[in-house]
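Quick start: what a row looks like.
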Amino acid sequence: MRRRAAYGGTAARKPRMTLANMKDRGLDRAATAAARIATVGKRALFVTAVAFLAFVSGGVAIFLEIQPVTEYLQKTAMVALYFYKSGVEGEAIDPFWHRSHLPGPDGGAPVILNDSRAWPGLNLVIDSQGQAAKLIDMNGRPVHEWRLRFDEIWSDPPHVPGFSDQGPAHWRDKVHWRRAHLYPNGDLLVVFESPFRTPYGFGMAKLDRDSQVIWTFSENAHHDTAVAPGGDIYVLSQRINETGYPGYRELPPPFIDDMVTAVAPDGTKIKDIPILKAFLNSDYAPALDLMDRNLQGDVMHANAVQYIDADMAAQFEFAQPGQLLISMREMSVIAVLDPEEERIVWARTGLWGAQHEPQMLGNGRILLFDNRGHRGPGGMTRVIEFDPETGSIAWAYAGTAEAPLISSVYGSQQRLPNGNTLIVETNNGRAIEVTPDGETVWEYRSPHRKTAESGAELVALLLDLVRVDPDQLSFLEGQAAETR
């Protein structure tokens, strides 16, 4: 049960080290700081070298017309780009972890605040540690769990060439669940990803309440999925485009071609809708100039899809029932896609940077996770509610001076029935529920922590946390009333 079905930069800068404050802290601390700076410098040099190697190798491959780009070059370019984009700062070479700017929970209990003003329900939690989703109550107590590794579903996945050659053990800790849709009967639609390969979409599977496979979708599904009222599924997918598009020479291949794929309720593919082609078929084709020509070839980085039902469409003049709201991070653009006509019918940018999770609201506004667009008090990240016609921002939250909102990549939010907003700060392993006045009334902090060589605390990515109404979950039966 996704949030939409229910309700119809850069990294943080380190403190500047000066000679004066080094003296105040003493020679021992100065030496430690110098050692840490040296370590970070070495790793930064390593990342720079990898990026340079990928750049030169890619240039040679293109000059010699070697197509497609080898998997090795894809991996090197991808890893270097990930470090640059996410601000790992040399403290971790594992993209499943990020530097935390707030301490973890005491005693391991993940919920550190549960005020009576929070909207009561259950929380569907997905993080980068273990391929699983957990349903917890408002106090963090477990209610149900789904758990199944990618290699337990696919032993030789046709959409991941070379997987069987490297073996399941190689991939076991390199794949994570990215998004899940919970059905009332306990079935779970799961999207798999791996940041260690290009394309990074690793497929989709439908599980029952006992984590048994109902069906699999063996294509490069990634990031997000939306389920229409009739049961059809729209999932983001991708492929390596090695030929380009006729008449559009501005983007030479190879590149990642993002698509919205329509899937029947039984897991059968209906059709692919290339997003780039949908822009070319529309009046919004000039927006393609905003694509990022990067080493990874991830020119759009589609990261969200929302199905627009009749009630929601009635609130937006530019939308019709059955259309889809989508998001492209590298373009900093959100758009409405007509899946029947396969064209973009509306698009907007300008108020945000590298956004995630646009969500149409019943008041005619759009709620959005602005990863890198904030320049005021709080953090570099904010959640905004804006008028899509005028661009005016009606509400925003960027955290506080003590707890700024910082998530350069990933992140999501959900408007709750009582008017509060649930915010997932992925890079910080934290989720908070805030009132319209910006007061925090519920807080979750991931217990999955470790210490980097530099001494910094790292936290597992909190990929998603969705508040659900237990009364809508028939598979819990009498248990639901006890977990409110």
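That is the whole record. The longest strand covers residues 233-241. The chain has one domain: 3-14+97-482.
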